[in-house]
What we know:
By secondary structure, this protein is largely without helices or strands. The protein folds into two domains: 7-57, no CATH class; 62-132, no CATH class. Helices cover 10% and strands 11% of the residues. The protein has helices at 53-57, 107-114, and strands at residues 34-41, 46-51. Strand 1 (34-41) and strand 2 (46-51) form a beta hairpin. The longest helix has 8 residues, at 107-114. The chain is elongated, with a radius of gyration of 26 Å.
Amino acid sequence: MRKRTLARFLDAVNFVGGNPAADPNESFGDEIYYVNQKTREDFEVVEFELATRMDVEGVQLPRRQVIRNTCPWRYRGDGCGYGGPPVADINDIQVVDLSNDVCGKRLSSCRMRFGAYGWLPFGGFPGASQYR
Length: 132
């Protein structure tokens, strides 16, 4: 287990003039590690690799696939949340009939429905290609 805190909360014994802000209860959450495997052993040293709970359980982050130009949300469903009038077809061509209203799953499709400057619930990751 690893415990962490800010220097300002350390015991007064750690400071020349004492520490009026010392607080043994102030800390970040405990970090618990598990022994994953033994990586080295000789006559003087035994070395272990530690793992977090997420590593042990096989959790991958992010939990969903990172796709740059495609929104995974179901149109007018959870994640998307659009409930307004018909806007455009799959090619972002304006329509007035609800039966022709289909989201193109692109950032531009999202902007047509929520506005160019509003909050966009776009589920894709437009900046994903900027990092390698």
